[in-house]
Design goal:
Helix content is 34%, strand content 19%. It has 80 residues and is of the alpha+beta class. The chain has one domain. The longest helix has 12 residues. This is Ferredoxin.
Length: 80
């Protein structure tokens, strides 16, 4: 069986961003206004006060940071 490469990241790579609250570095990609992909770095997972209690929860502070970065154009929306 052949694994087909995912070319979406070649066309629109993930972008670095730091959380406004804890300064944790993550990579984000906004495929659309409704869909966001996040890659957490080990440092961000350690620094995030919201993930210390539950690693599987979404951090509301990072969500706000991503929304603001998208609105001001720092993070680009792929499907506009």
């Amino acid at each position: 069986m052949t694994i087909r490469p995912d070319n979406r990241l070649a066309d629109a790579p993930m972008q670095p961003l730091r959380c406004q609250r804890c300064d944790g570095p993550v990579l984000v990609r906004k495929s659309s206004w409704e869909q966001t992909s996040i890659q957490w770095s080990e440092q961000a997972m350690e620094d995030c006060p919201n993930l210390r209690t539950d690693r599987y929860r979404t951090c509301p502070d990072l969500r706000i940071t991503i929304q603001q970065a998208t609105l001001n154009g720092t993070v680009k929306v792929v499907d506009e």
